[in-house]
């Protein structure tokens, strides 16, 4: 019988507790505990545990499935630990001590520095700088050596048409040879070097020969679909990080000849005129390199799933950074993506899928972040990031990411939800746009320490067609909302001091259509470039419009449902495809617009040289279409030895500082580019 019981955990909590989920600090030292005493089922209930003391016990290893999603401090001094790799299951770990474990060496120190990206203190020493060197410089050096070893000794040994047996044989010989012959660093780190070389070599073979990487991830557990149908306090346990297929790592697999970048050249149907080709008003070309290509939204974790569509991604805000004031520091390198039955959180630098949430009967279309100040234990308040996810079922899931817990849901609409967004000034206000031709404004409330909450509907905006994209006006986000819909672009007054809870649109915007103006067109891309300039993409092939909100919409105008000509500032040259729902995004801090196309490419527009002229009251319209500053071409990527099917870029989003670019496709591939 295990020495650890619920009663023992409650007794050893600091301070003592009455519920496992409330425990944040736990002292299990000096109990003669062995590895078998750490029951994963019992530990999985400690979802808020941040500090754990296991010192002075008899542990020889850690079980692989201790679900402690918020663990930050771990003390394992004076045990019998033989291996540290299982500690990778605690990705938020910041402080770790394991002194006086006689079987652990310097090699183990380097392993945990590589595996735990947030680790700051190891055995009482600050290892921040050394850990960065281990994760980046060391990895680059070893990757280069592994690649060179393959090219020199093994590449020519593999026939162009090879059998499975030949692949198996060369894999075995290559792994043995590379671990023996690739040497880097002092001899005291030879075990760590062999460990990393094997890891890098397997990833290399996975791409070059189409071999799968052995995954030690736990099987997926679906969210409980039988929870109470209530918005008060439904209980859903988010699943552990699921199996991920790392299709591509540029450090391992991309040769310079494959890193093709097209400098302002589009396809055959998008050639510039001579005047466009010779006039380089745009800022210099941006150097961006592909970091990771991930297949992490597969249905049933199938490696063969290239049909799941990926739709939405948004970067997580940084807590306590003054994020609402300074957009440059308002996001981390963690991005939430959605598509199919799952929502993933991805570290853009490492390509690691940090968390994955899954609802088997859902197809997620949109995600959005907000930061809520929640009451935690002892009546203390703390800011936490909350992720909202919605899709085909018309239900909004609310996820407390740090606790790895889906704490509630809002049954917002009876038809699918196309998109969601939070107010930048009212952190509990959430807009949901649905196929029922309505946009609803919700107050999602703030959950208490037991995750009880109450959501309420504040407003319903009536649309004449399905709303696809939402954009709050930056200068007055509590008063006006824009929506790109199936049949036009509309504006609503959303001020809550007006008595009317259900409201029609206040204005519909006209756009050029050949030689006339029209309101009837699908607007599937909509975003603000700055406080005044709106970027919208319609069903008209080959064109993205930039127009002035303030000069188009007169707030003093009388009457609802006015028809208003959009004051066009410029047109952006884009693909000639008539394919819909390839949406755009902006990076206001860097004056960039991004839009993907039907060939897997990303069109990038640096508009820094234009925004000053547009900001003047009498700013003139740009006479010619503005060509892209750069087009990022889809790399030559082979999946299981074959070219992927037709690749549509459904969405492309940068972080506010434009350090990373996340590309979502129609073939279940998330591509991450890094600005170099």
Automatic annotation (TrEMBL):
GO MF annotations in UniProt: chromatin binding
PROSITE patterns membership: LRR, WD_REPEATS_1, WD_REPEATS_2, WD_REPEATS_REGION
SMART domains, per database record: WD40
First and last residues of every WD repeat: 410-444
Residue span, Leucine-rich repeat and WD repeat-containing protein 1 LRR domain: 7-200
Keyword Repeat: yes
Predominant place of localization: nucleus
Entry's localization field: Chromosome, Centromere, Kinetochore; Chromosome, Telomere; Cytoplasm, Cytoskeleton, Microtubule organizing center, Centrosome; Nucleus
Alphabetized UniProt keyword annotations: Centromere, Chromatin regulator, Chromosome, Cytoplasm, Cytoskeleton, DNA replication, Kinetochore, Leucine-rich repeat, Nucleus, Repeat, Telomere, WD repeat
Segments of this protein annotated with the region Disordered: 215-237, 257-288
Protein name: Leucine-rich repeat and WD repeat-containing protein 1
Organism (species): Sakesphorus luctuosus
Lineage per the UniProt record: Eukaryota, Metazoa, Chordata, Craniata, Vertebrata
């Amino acid at each position: 019988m295990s020495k650890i019981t619920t009663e023992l955990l409650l007794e050893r909590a600091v301070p003592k507790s009455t519920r496992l989920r409330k425990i944040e600090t736990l002292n299990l030292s000096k109990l003669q505990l062995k590895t078998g005493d750490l029951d994963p089922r019992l530990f999985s209930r400690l979802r808020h545990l941040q500090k754990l003391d296991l010192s002075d016990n008899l542990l020889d290893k850690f079980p692989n499935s201790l679900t402690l999603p918020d663990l930050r401090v771990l003390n394992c001094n004076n045990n019998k630990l033989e291996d540290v790799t299982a500690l990778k299951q605690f990705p938020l770990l910041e402080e770790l001590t394991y002194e006086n474990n006689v079987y652990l060496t310097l090699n183990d120190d380097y392993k945990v520095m590589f595996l735990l990206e947030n680790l700051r203190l190891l055995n009482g020493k600050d290892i921040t700088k050394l850990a960065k060197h281990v994760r980046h410089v060391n990895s680059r050096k070893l990757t280069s050596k592994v690649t060179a070893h393959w090219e020199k000794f093994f590449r020519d040994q593999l026939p162009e048409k090879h059998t499975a047996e030949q692949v198996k044989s060369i894999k075995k010989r290559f792994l043995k040879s590379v671990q023996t012959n690739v040497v880097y660093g002092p001899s005291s780190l030879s075990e760590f070097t062999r460990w990393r070389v094997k890891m890098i070599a397997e990833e290399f073979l996975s791409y070059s020969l189409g071999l799968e990487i052995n995954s030690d991830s736990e099987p997926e557990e679906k969210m409980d679909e039988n929870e109470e149908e209530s918005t008060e306090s439904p209980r859903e346990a988010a699943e552990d990080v699921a199996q991920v297929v790392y299709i591509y790592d540029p450090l391992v697999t991309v040769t310079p000849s494959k890193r093709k970048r097209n400098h302002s050249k589009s396809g055959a149907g998008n050639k510039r005129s001579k005047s466009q080709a010779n006039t380089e008003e745009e800022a210099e070309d941006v150097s961006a390199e592909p970091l990771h290509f991930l297949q992490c939204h597969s249905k049933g974790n199938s490696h063969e799933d290239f049909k799941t569509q990926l739709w939405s991604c948004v970067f997580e805000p940084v807590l306590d950074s003054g994020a609402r004031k300074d957009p440059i520091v308002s996001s981390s390198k963690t991005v939430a993506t959605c598509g199919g039955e799952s929502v993933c959180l991805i570290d853009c630098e490492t390509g690691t899928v940090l968390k994955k949430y899954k609802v088997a009967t859902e197809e997620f279309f949109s995600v959005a972040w907000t930061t809520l100040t929640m009451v935690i234990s002892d009546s203390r308040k703390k800011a936490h990031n909350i992720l909202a996810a919605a899709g085909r079922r018309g239900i909004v899931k609310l996820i407390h990411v740090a606790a790895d817990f889906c704490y509630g849901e809002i049954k917002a609409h009876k038809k699918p939800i196309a998109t969601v967004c939070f107010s930048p000034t009212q952190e509990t206000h959430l807009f949901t746009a649905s196929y029922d031709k309505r946009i609803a404004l919700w107050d999602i409330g703030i959950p208490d320490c037991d995750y009880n909450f109450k959501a309420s509907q504040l407003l319903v905006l009536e649309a004449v067609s399905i709303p696809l994209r939402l954009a709050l006006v930056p200068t007055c986000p509590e008063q006006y909302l824009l929506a790109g819909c199936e049949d036009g672009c509309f504006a609503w007054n959303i001020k809550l001091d007006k008595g009317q809870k259900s409201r029609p649109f206040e204005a519909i915007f006209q756009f050029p259509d050949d030689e006339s103006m029209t309101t009837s067109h699908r607007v599937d891309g909509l975003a603000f470039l700055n406080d005044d300039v709106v970027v919208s993409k319609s069903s008209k092939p080959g064109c993205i419009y930039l127009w002035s909100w303030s000069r188009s919409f007169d707030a003093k105008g009388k009457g609802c449902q006015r028809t208003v000509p959009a004051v066009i500032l410029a047109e952006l040259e884009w693909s000639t495809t008539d394919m819909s729902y390839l949406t755009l995004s902006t990076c206001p801090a860097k004056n960039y617009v991004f839009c993907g196309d039907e060939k897997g490419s990303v069109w990038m527009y640096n508009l820094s040289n234009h925004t000053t002229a547009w900001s003047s009251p009498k700013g003139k319209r740009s006479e010619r279409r503005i060509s892209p500053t750069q087009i990022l071409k889809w790399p030559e990527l082979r999946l299981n030895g074959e070219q992927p099917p037709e690749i549509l870029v459904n969405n492309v989003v940068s972080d506010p500082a434009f350090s990373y670019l996340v590309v979502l496709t129609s073939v279940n591939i998330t591509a991450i580019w890094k600005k170099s």
